[in-house]
UniProtKB/TrEMBL annotation:
Annotated organism of origin: Geodermatophilus tzadiensis
TM stretches of this protein: none
Parts forming coiled coils: none
InterPro entries named in the record: Cupin_2 (IPR013096), QDO-like (IPR053146), RmlC-like_jellyroll (IPR014710), RmlC_Cupin_sf (IPR011051)
GO molecular function: dioxygenase activity
Protein name per the record: Quercetin dioxygenase-like cupin family protein
Keywords noted in UniProt: Dioxygenase, Oxidoreductase
Domain Cupin type-2: 45-113
Superkingdom of this protein's organism: Bacteria
Amino acid sequence: MSHPPPGLVQVRTLADHPLAGSGAAALRMVATGALTSGRFGLVEYRLAPHSPGAAPHYHQTFSESFYVLSGELTLYADRRWQPCRPGDFALASEGGVHGFRNDSDEPVSFLILFTPGIAREEFFAETAELRRSGRTLSPEERTAFYARHDQVVVEE
């Protein structure tokens, strides 16, 4: 039996693709949509204790799944905030309102899987740059930013 052509397995080490961020949140793009030919994207996310994450929102063109690795993630689902612990999984299908934060006294680490693998890394990069610079978006800029990244914020 012969082997398929080489290059069909890619390894992305933590050393080559470390967590980025400062303050309360750090993340790394474990697998970008470009790496997976648009099949999916995978983000490792860490939040410090008592840190905000994402306010309730939804996406029209992609789903997000959450898998808690350590700590306790507070997830917005079914119109309420609820704790999720290591091993817990949540799927927010297209149009499913969701959000996340860390209400606990310990750090939380979790994975976010989005499908299909759109260029979601651009959203995270722009968000990180806004945090770094301290720049606040005008209402018009915020609307354009969210529209560009298919993020529809909703009232709780």
